[in-house]
Amino acid sequence: MSVADQAPRFAGPVDQRMWSERIPAPWWILGLILLLLPIVANNFWLFQIMGWTFILGMIGLSLMFLAGYGGMVSLLQMSIAGMAGYMVAILGPSGAANVSLGLSWWIVLPAAFLIAALFATISGALAVRTDGIYTIMITLAIAAAFFYFTRQNYSVFNGYSGFNLVLPPQVFGVNWRDPLPFYYLTLACASLCYGAVVYLARAPFGLALQGVRDNPRRMAALGFNVTAHRVAAYALTSVFASTGGILLVWQNAQIAPGTIGISSAIDVLVVAVVGGIRRPLGPFIGAFIYVLLQVFSTDILGFFGFSADRFKLIIGIGFLAIVLFSPDGVLGLWDRWRARVVARKGATTGAGA
Amino acid sequence: MDNFIKRYPLWGLVFVLLAAAFLFLVLAPWPPELVAIWGRKQIFLNALLGGITLGALYFLVAAGFTLIFGLMRVVNLAHGSLFLIGGYLGYEVSTASGSWLLAFPIVFILVALIGLLMQFFIFSKMEGEELRQTLVSIGLSIVFADLMLWWWGGQSYSILAPQFLQGPMELPIVSNVNDSTGAVTWLRYPSVRIWILVAAIVIGIAMWIVLNRTALGMLIRAGVDDREMLAASGVRIHLVFLAVFGFGAGLAGIAGIIGATFQSLSPGEDTRFLLASLVVVIVGGMGSIVGAALGALIIGVAEQMGFVYAPTYSIVLTFLIMAAVLAFRPQGLLGTRR
Questions:
Q1: Does the pTM exceed 0.90?
Q2: Helices (DSSP H) in B154-236: which residue ranges?
Q3: Gap between the Cα atoms of A306 and B288, Å rounded
Q4: Closest Cα of chain A to B68: distance in Å?
Q5: Do B150 and A313 count as a contact with CB atoms less than 8 A apart?
Q6: For residue range B58-104, what is the model confidence (pLDDT) as tens digits?
Q7: β-strand A163-164 against A254-255: which pairing, if any?
Q8: How many CB atoms lie within 10 A of CB A333?
């Protein structure tokens, strides 16, 4: 499977500009805003809202990569994130001292990524045995099995109560759980993951994966190993999911089976679909909307005279509305709005749209 | 059967030996050495019967799921919600009217109506877009789950079985033989579970007969094989779709009453039974009624056996069965590749 020398190459003229010139202006502005946000935002916004948005966005991003480029809608990503989070809690120090091993962070983190990747590879290998909608069902079943297993197993996963007091290590003398460092940590991780996905989408592997999505038979005929590409995609996206999962554990300082339950697994799908599952930015937008709704649902619902418990109802109806009316998510709505504006401008100036 | 033994003599022998060992385990009084290893026979029999009756419940849920999937290619992930709605409605009807049996037709009609509305207003609008239909059904299940939590709250409900089904009944299976007196104890088992098993078998056979021996069944089978061709030959396929969706939903509703009588209902049971029907259908094979029955039996027995003999790992056992089926026969035990 030599992907590199078979990958299609662009025939057009090579873009000669510097990499920094090729990034459009809105991105620079967005980057500046995110970097300078701590000047205006308080700790609650930095830690709870933005931190959670980035974490949920990263887990959603892993689903977006699988679904958008690989055509595999996997409900497994939360379980992979949870596996990495659990490994940090089990191998590193935590409140459950009789279960946790208390190793130091430079062993724990690579081990967590590795074990989560292994879990993703094995489950992915099972899931790619079938395709299309079957993938959803099989990954849902695996996610549920993992959830019930962590709830019943006390010797390794500490059962129902899970682990508390899972704190990030004090590297460079910084308490990474303080709002400001945590904000920059999650921002850096999210940017890296985003950049990695943007790069991978244009790299030979990403192009081959998109080919597999569009026409697996043809790619197989061209000599690509379809199954290997799909399984590799699962293994690769486990990195994004694991990053999100580990940060999630550090943010909450605890992990329990509830973190990786079925509803969380579906939340990741909701986040990715609401934002737009075709582009890497989508999950972050979806995550931002989701977190805002979650955090402010009390006020919004109270305004309309409902109890705050009806948050799920809003999420469900919003998700239904998006799926029914704009299958490509909020980003799709934005695209269509812009297309309409351009068309109208074209109509008034007399130029072709 | 003869053909199978002729073609695979070795496998035939293995199956015959397994069946004989199974019959010995069930029918014969256990020798003391076996009791020393596996515990008392009564525990084994209870787990086995519990598994079979649980399998009957799983079958009722999964049959509708697999039928809807087989015909319409709709993965209705709101199927678990229909189960839970059926259970809650059954509770309301049976407490209001005092009649357990009356709940069945009413709940069947009500839940079938919900299914019809879902199919008519939502799923039929996006025919052929399988992923979108699945996403919509996920959205529906979120909304349904929250509405039910709103209305019925977080506590658990269970429906009382009627008088004539309460208490145990004796089965013609030896549970224990007293060594000194030679007196035989027969196995006693809750009669409501036995009757539910009988009912599930009757429903299963009825479904099989309808599918294989009637004109409607012919239409459904033709639709499973080639939807476009059936529509082209003048059948109003949307009516067939509606009928199947309504029937599958109603069946899930009835299963809800049975589940509430067996165990109890609480928020979260919808995902549990959705998961169960997913696993059953993956193991048994998509779109096959017989496959659903086989899968339900395997999963039910595995779950109960695991629960009795290895409590921590009972879920893993179920999952391993699914993984093994996927690894060696991705289309399910009785599924066909399409």
A1: no
A2: 191-213, 215-225, 227-232
A3: 44
A4: 14
A5: yes
A6: 998 998 888 888 777 777 888 999 999 999 999 999 888 888 888 88
A7: antiparallel
A8: 14
